[in-house]
Design a protein that fits this description.
This protein is of the alpha/beta class and 297 residues long. It contains ten helices and twelve strands.
Length: 297
């Protein structure tokens, strides 16, 4: 079948909700920023059980689709483990397409972004699955529009998965270190302005990776309609950061490699495909005292 867009609307999904080729996945995870210190994170499984889009299966990013033995939360799992879990959900090679959504970016926050959904979409692309989209506005927009909601768990036949990993979508801290002085690489900090300037200390050391530019992942959507702004507006934001230059590579990072995938997905949507995510992000970077951080204070 033809390739699905990187981002799809609620109207688009509603028209295809009964399509036997659709694999609809709820990737809800919850993050709450405390007044100080590291954030609280928990699985969205209970929220899924209380209500979700009909037909959707639940993908547990925290417990099943991250390396739970790793030092840092949301570290990419071994490929074999990821494929085992995702094919059990019915996602894989078959003549199907995937739409991922979530129930919001942060608890008790006005930020509108589908970054948990984009995280799973990015993981799927990294492992070699192309036909995957993120639902603009996610479950909050779907509910706001009065569309159907169910508590009945979805299920799909087990799938196979043969796609090859795409290493160009991922960077580690050594590659980020090398990129700091590389004029052909644009490094984007996807966190908010206060975090970028070093006015808050969430990760043990405040600040941003030297040379990185700040494009807050929560600045791309309308808080009233819950929709992404028009491409022209988002394009202008990324152009100011120099991120749409076709001759340059872009690296996005955030706190744990979640919000960074929302920026990377939007860059893909705008035609910039030379984008990699720093999976460890500031959780890893700030924990290493030998790695530099800059503040604007």
């Amino acid at each position: 079948m033809s390739h699905v867009p990187f981002i799809v609307t609620t109207d688009w999904l509603a028209e295809r909700l009964d399509d036997s080729k659709l694999r609809l996945v709820d990737a809800t995870t919850f993050l709450k920023l405390p007044a100080s210190g590291y954030y609280d994170i928990w699985s969205g499984k209970e929220a899924y059980e209380k209500g979700h889009i009909p037909g959707a299966v639940f993908a547990d990013l925290l417990e099943d689709l991250s390396d739970t033995d790793a030092e840092y939360a949301f570290t990419l799992p071994p490929r074999k483990e990821f494929i085992k879990k995702i094919t059990e959900l019915g996602v894989g090679d078959e003549d199907t397409y995937v739409v991922v959504y979530d129930q919001g970016a942060q608890v008790d926050s006005p930020v509108v972004a589908s970054d948990w959904a984009s995280r799973l979409a990015w993981q799927l692309r990294y492992e070699g699955l192309e036909n995957v989209a993120v639902l603009d506005g996610g479950f909050p927009k779907w509910k706001k529009e009065g569309r159907p909601v169910t508590t009945e768990s979805g299920s799909y036949p087990k799938a196979s998965f043969s796609g090859g990993r795409k290493p160009e979508l991922f960077v580690n801290k050594e590659e980020v270190k090398q990129a700091i002085d590389d004029d052909n690489v644009i490094i984007i900090n996807s966190l908010n302005e206060a975090a970028h300037k070093g006015e808050v200390n969430t990760y043990g050391r405040p600040g941003h990776i030297p040379g990185s530019v700040n494009v807050f992942f929560g600045d791309h959507s309308d808080s009233e309609t819950l929709e992404l702004y028009d491409d022209e507006i988002i394009r202008e934001t990324f152009e100011k950061a120099g991120a749409l230059d076709p001759d340059k590579k872009v690296i996005t990072y955030c706190g744990s490699g979640i919000a960074a995938t929302w920026n990377s997905t939007l860059l893909n949507k705008l035609g910039q495909h030379n984008v990699a995510v720093y999976d460890g992000s500031l959780t890893e970077w700030a924990s290493d005292p030998d790695l530099p951080l800059e503040t604007d204070k």
